Every structure is written in structure tokens, then in C-alpha cells.
């Protein structure tokens, strides 16, 4: 009897996958499972089978699991034994991989938000705009560990003890240069091109690395 039921279950899941794809295709963000199950008039077990099918096909990101456990490493302790150059070095290891994952796994809604965040709105500071953009990428990677590592790394890098004063004032031209680099990353993700997204992120962070090095040793650039 179980053999006669299996095709029926598979067909139900396939229909659910089609219905969920239609919702995603409209650019709408999926509601919580309980609400979505009610909208589609299905039980949550079958809904989860359909959602997992879409996640395995990289059409949906993995859910972000929030935990309240304190991390083993605390940013205020780590910051005592590091510096701004070490932070950007580690970002150059982590964030190109995050951009690559986002190009494969980000949902249409997440991609729309990434494209919008790539340009810093008037009235938003350079730092806030930068953190918002990079956080969106981490959250869109579908990898909770990578997103958590990124968040921890930025907490360390944002500590005032690691602040490196700018040699000159932040101008609109400098913000526009940064936004151009962000847009290159965002457009590669929107085009579902992981190689291009990874490369654009690497180029962006390499420039940031050079900028930090110049701030730490301004005489080297004039010698």
C-alpha cells in the first residue's frame, strides 16, 4: 500500500514546488512556514519537503538560525591582539567566498536588496552604508557559519581601538568609487556569476587593504 501512495506524495510536493516558485518569481519574500502552510492549504511536513527541494536546487537560501549562546571568542578580547591590517587580511579570505555563495544562493528578494544597497543613499554615512551592504551579502550566502564569522570580524574591525584615521576627508567622490565597486559585486550576484562576484569582491577589498596600509604608513606613499 505504501508503494501506491509514494507517487501521490511526490506529485503533491512537485505541485508545492511550482506554487512556491510562482511566489518567489513575483519578487515576494516567503512568509514563515506556519503562515505559508496555511496559504497553500498543506501540512508543514509536505511544505518542508518542497522547501528542501528548492534549497537543494539553490533556488532558496538555507534558513538563518539565530542562537543566543555567547561566542567562545569575544571581540573585545580579540581586538587586544590584532590590528586593522589583520582584519582586512581575514576579510579577503572570507568575503570573496561569501560573494560567490550569494551569487548561487541569494533569493530574488535578497538580490533586489543587494542591488539597492550597493549605492549609498544621501544622508547615510560611508561606514553605515558599507556595513549594510556587506552584511546583506553575508546573510544571503546561505551559510550561517560564514555569516556569523563575518559579523564577528566586523565587530572586531569596528572597535575604536583599531580605528585608523583617514589621511584626508571623506568626499562624495570617494564614496562613489566605493559604490562603483559595490555595484560590480551586486551586478555579478544578480547575473548569477559566482566567478565574477568573487573577483569583484577581491578587487574591492584589495583597494581597501591598500588604503589602510597607506593610512598606517603615509610616508611610504610619498617616498
Automatic annotation (TrEMBL):
Q: Please list the GO terms describing molecular function.
A: DNA binding
**Record's keyword annotation contains Transcription regulation:** yes
Glycoprotein as a keyword of this entry, yes or no, is no
Ranges for the GntR C-terminal domain?
86-207
Keywords from the UniProt entry: DNA-binding, Transcription, Transcription regulation
Q: Which SMART domains match?
A: FCD
State the superkingdom.
Bacteria
Q: Which Gene3D superfamilies match?
A: GntR ligand-binding domain-like, Winged helix-like DNA-binding domain superfamily/Winged helix DNA-binding domain
* Protein's UniProt name: Transcriptional regulator NanR
Q: Which organism is it from?
A: Bordetella pseudohinzii
Amino acid at each position: 500500500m505504501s508503494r501506491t501512495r509514494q507517487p501521490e506524495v511526490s506529485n503533491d510536493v512537485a505541485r508545492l514546488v511550482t506554487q512556491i516558485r510562482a511566489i518567489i518569481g513575483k519578487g515576494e519574500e516567503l512568509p514563515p512556514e506556519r503562515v505559508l502552510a496555511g496559504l497553500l492549504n498543506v501540512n508543514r511536513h509536505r511544505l518542508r519537503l518542497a522547501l528542501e527541494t528548492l534549497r537543494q536546487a539553490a533556488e532558496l537560501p538555507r534558513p538563518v538560525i539565530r542562537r543566543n549562546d555567547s561566542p567562545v571568542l569575544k571581540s573585545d578580547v580579540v581586538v587586544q591582539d590584532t590590528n586593522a591590517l589583520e582584519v582586512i587580511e581575514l576579510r579577503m579570505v572570507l568575503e570573496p567566498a561569501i560573494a560567490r555563495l550569494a551569487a548561487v544562493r541569494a533569493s530574488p528578494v535578497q538580490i533586489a536588496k543587494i542591488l539597492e544597497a550597493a549605492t549609498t543613499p544621501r544622508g547615510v554615512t560611508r561606514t553605515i552604508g558599507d556595513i549594510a551592504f556587506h552584511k546583506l551579502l553575508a546573510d544571503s550566502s546561505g551559510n550561517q557559519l560564514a555569516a556569523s564569522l563575518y559579523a564577528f570580524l566586523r565587530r572586531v574591525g569596528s572597535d575604536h581601538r583599531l580605528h585608523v584615521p583617514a589621511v584626508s576627508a571623506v568626499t562624495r567622490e570617494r564614496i562613489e568609487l566605493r559604490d562603483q565597486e559595490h555595484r560590480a559585486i551586486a551586478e555579478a550576484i544578480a547575473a548569477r556569476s559566482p566567478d565574477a562576484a568573487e573577483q569583484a569582491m577581491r578587487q574591492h577589498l584589495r583597494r581597501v587593504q591598500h588604503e589602510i596600509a597607506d593610512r598606517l604608513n603615509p610616508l611610504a606613499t610619498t617616498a
